[in-house]
Design a protein that fits this description.
- This protein has helices at about 1-5, 15-30, 35-50, 55-80, 90-105, 120-135, 155-170, 175-195, 205-215.
- The protein is mostly helical and about 220 residues long.
- The chain is globular.
């Protein structure tokens, strides 16, 4: 029993910090210049969130759904599973999240984006902006350089945080909560992994979950919130 107490969380990981860093570097090298398209589509989603139209929520949901499927296949299955066999059991959840985005957006009433500013919308936009513009820069203090940057739609963490931002602000409420669960679970797993690796910024995915829960639980800011 005393031997088990001597173990640290990092001892249970199947890979070293350097192997984890190379995961992102090799993924970016293989996909270049798809990062430019991903950032452009992320910018289009941000525009839709800031200037909502009747079709904006469906556009955002559809683009996010494509991102969840792509990341499940291109990153998790092709890159992450070879160094961490447990990730294979996460992939169905990513596919389920994509299906939820499409299904909930297609249901009667769809998904509504708030048109007035309030706590929910502000926190949701903050989360999305971080995922789009700031999260790629987390690679710098982590020592990976921009070649290891995590780009929305191509890597799981910024995709999950962006989805948390959207789920934080949309109506109706039950659909927002439903879309929040899987990205929140991924952020928790990612935060624990990063902390075990001793990576700077390990607290960011956990903070994103906290802000999304705060926004989702906040009283309605307006009839469309």
């Amino acid at each position: 029993m005393s031997e088990w107490l001597s173990y640290r969380p990092a001892d249970f990981l199947m890979f070293s910090p350097r192997v984890y860093e190379r995961l992102f570097e090799l993924h970016n090298q293989a996909l270049w210049p798809l990062q430019l398209l991903a950032l452009a589509l992320g910018g289009a989603m941000l525009f839709a969130l800031l200037h909502p139209r009747p079709w904006s929520a469906r556009l955002v949901a559809a683009l996010l759904a494509v991102g969840w499927v792509f990341v499940a296949w291109a990153f998790l299955w092709q890159r992450y599973v070879p160094i961490n066999w447990g990730i294979r059991y996460v992939i169905p959840l990513f596919v389920l999240q994509a299906l939820l985005l499409i299904a909930l957006g297609a249901l009667k009433g769809g998904l509504d984006l708030p048109t007035r500013w309030g706590v929910r919308r502000a926190l949701g936009v903050v989360l999305f902006v971080h995922a789009l513009a700031l999260h790629p820069l987390v690679a710098l203090p982590a020592g990976r350089g921009l070649q290891g940057a995590e780009v929305i739609g191509l890597m799981p963490d910024p995709l999950a945080i962006a989805t948390l931002g959207v789920a934080a602000m949309i109506a109706p409420g039950p659909r927002g909560w439903a879309l929040l669960v899987i990205p929140a679970l991924w952020c928790l797993v990612s935060g624990i992994t990063l902390a075990a690796l001793g990576t700077p910024g390990a607290w960011l995915p956990l903070l994103a979950v906290g802000l999304a829960l705060l926004a989702r639980g906040w009283p309605r800011d307006s009839p469309t919130a």
